[in-house]
Design a protein that fits this description.
Number of domains: 2
CATH class of the largest domain: Alpha Beta
Radius of gyration: 24 Å
Structural class: alpha/beta
Order of helices and strands: EEEHHEHHEHEEHEHHEHHEHHEH
Low-confidence stretches: 8-15
CATH architecture of the largest domain: 2-Layer Sandwich
Helix content: 25-40%
Shape: globular
CATH topology of the largest domain: Nucleotidyltransferase, domain 5
CATH superfamily of the largest domain: Exopolyphosphatase. Domain 2
Distance between the termini: 80 Å
Mean pLDDT: 88
Strand order of the largest sheet: 8-7-6-9-11-10
Length: 370
C-alpha cells in the first residue's frame, strides 16, 4: 500500500515579513520638562513645519536649590514645593495624553548629596521619571534651542545660558558653513559637540564651559555683603574669575560676524525692562537685539532702585527681584570680556532644545527654513 501523503505536505510556507516600523505621527504631542535650581518649567508642543506650536505650558518658582550652598543637600521644604509643582505637570501630561516626553533635572540635583534619592522620591509621589543630565548635554540643548535666532551673517557665535545653579557658555565657529545653512548647522549639534560623519558642513565647537555659578548660587556666595552696589561688583568680578579656563577668554574678536545669544530669565527680564513692559510679552522679547549701552543703562537703573525699588518694580516681577542683580552681574561680566555692539535675547532654552531634539530624532520636523 502506498504511503499516505501527510496533510499539508508540499505546501510552500508563507514567508513572514517583519512588520514595517511605525512612522512617527507628525500630529503627536511632545513634552519637555526642565527642573532647575530655581524653577520647574514644562512645555507641551506639536510639530509645525520646521518648528513647533506650544499647546500648554507650566512655570513655577520652586527654589529647589535653596540652602544647597550651605548644606550640600536639598531641603525637605524645597523638595515638597517641587513635588507639588510636578503633580500639576503630571495632570497636564495626562490631560493631553502625551506619550513622547523627556523630563530632566539639572545643577541642583547634580550637586546635591541626596539628588538621586530625590529623583526616586519624585517617581514614588508623582509617577514621573526624571533624569539628571550632565552639563555638556545641558549646554548642547541650550544651543539647539537658539538655532532659529542665529544670523546667516554670524561667523563666531557665543551662546550663554544663565541658569539658577550654573551658567553654560558655548563658542561655535561657523566660518566653514555656507551662510544659508548656519542656523540648521546649529540644530545638528543636538547629537553632540563632536560631529559625526555627515555630508553637511558642520559647526565647530571651539570650546564650552559650565560655570557652577547661576543666579541663585552666585547670590548665595555673597549674601553676607550688605552694600548693594558693592555686592554687585563683587559678584561680577567673581564670575569673570571663573571664566579664566575658557579657551576664547583672551581672544580678541572682530565685532563683524560675531554674535552673542543670551538665554535666561535674566536676559529676558533686562529686555522687558528696556522695552518698559509692565506685562511680559514673549513676542516682543524673543529675538530682540539689544546694544551693550542699552543693557548697561538697564543695569544702572536696577542699581539706582535698590533692593526695595526692585522688589516693587513691575518690569522685574516678584519671582525675579531677588535674583536679578546676580544675573545682571553675570551679564555685565560677559559684555566686559567680549565687548560687542549687540546681544540677541532668547526667550528659549533647555525645554525648547529638548523638544527640538526629540522631534528631530523622530523625523517629524520639515526640512525647511526656520
Amino acid at each position: 500500500m502506498a504511503p499516505k501523503r501527510p496533510v499539508g505536505a508540499g505546501v510552500f510556507p508563507v514567508p513572514v515579513e517583519p512588520p514595517a516600523p511605525r512612522r512617527p505621527d507628525p500630529a503627536a504631542l511632545y513634552a519637555a520638562l526642565d527642573l532647575g535650581t530655581n524653577s520647574c518649567r514644562m512645555l507641551i508642543a506639536q510639530p509645525k513645519g520646521s518648528q513647533f506650536h506650544v499647546v500648554d505650558s507650566f512655570s513655577k518658582s520652586v527654589q529647589l536649590g535653596y540652602g544647597l550652598e550651605r548644606s550640600g543637600r536639598l531641603s525637605r521644604g524645597s523638595m515638597a514645593r517641587t513635588v507639588q509643582a510636578l503633580r500639576i505637570c503630571k495632570k497636564k501630561l495626562e490631560k493631553h495624553d502625551v506619550r513622547r516626553m523627556r523630563l530632566v533635572a539639572t545643577e541642583a540635583c547634580r550637586r546635591a548629596g541626596n539628588g538621586d534619592e530625590f529623583m526616586a522620591y519624585v517617581t514614588r509621589e508623582t509617577g514621573l521619571e526624571l533624569e539628571i543630565i550632565q552639563p555638556q548635554e545641558e549646554a548642547q540643548l541650550a544651543v539647539v534651542s537658539c538655532a532659529p535666532l542665529v544670523s546667516t551673517k554670524t561667523e563666531q557665535l557665543l551662546v550663554v545660558d544663565i541658569g539658577g545653579g550654573s551658567t553654560e557658555l558655548v563658542w561655535i565657529d561657523l566660518t566653514s558653513v555656507p551662510k544659508h545653512d548656519r542656523p540648521r548647522a546649529i540644530m545638528r549639534l543636538h547629537n553632540g559637540f563632536k560631529p559625526a560623519e555627515s555630508p553637511f558642513p558642520h559647526a565647530k565647537v571651539v570650546d564650552w564651559i559650565s560655570v557652577p555659578l547661576g543666579v541663585a548660587t552666585l547670590r548665595d556666595q555673597f549674601h553676607d555683603v550688605e552694600d548693594d552696589a558693592g555686592r554687585f561688583a563683587l559678584m561680577s568680578w567673581f564670575f569673570e574669575e571663573n571664566l579664566a579656563s575658557f579657551t576664547p577668554y583672551d581672544a580678541i574678536q572682530e565685532k563683524d560676524g560675531f554674535q552673542i545669544i543670551g538665554t535666561s530669565g535674566t536676559v529676558t527680564t533686562v529686555a522687558a525692562s528696556h522695552l518698559g513692559l509692565k506685562r511680559y510679552d514673549r513676542n516682543k522679547v524673543d529675538g530682540l537685539r539689544m546694544t551693550s549701552d542699552q543693557i548697561d543703562t538697564v543695569i544702572r537703573e536696577y542699581l539706582a532702585l535698590g533692593p526695595e525699588g526692585r522688589r516693587t518694580d513691575p518690569r522685574i516681577g516678584r519671582d525675579r527681584h531677588a535674583l536679578i542683580m546676580s544675573g545682571a552681574a553675570i551679564l555685565q561680566a560677559l559684555l566686559r570680556v567680549w565687548p560687542t555692539d549687540r546681544l540677541s535675547v532668547a526667550d528659549r532654552g533647555l525645554r525648547e532644545g529638548l523638544l527640538y531634539a526629540q522631534m528631530s530624532a523622530d523625523g517629524v520636523l520639515e526640512d525647511g527654513p526656520f
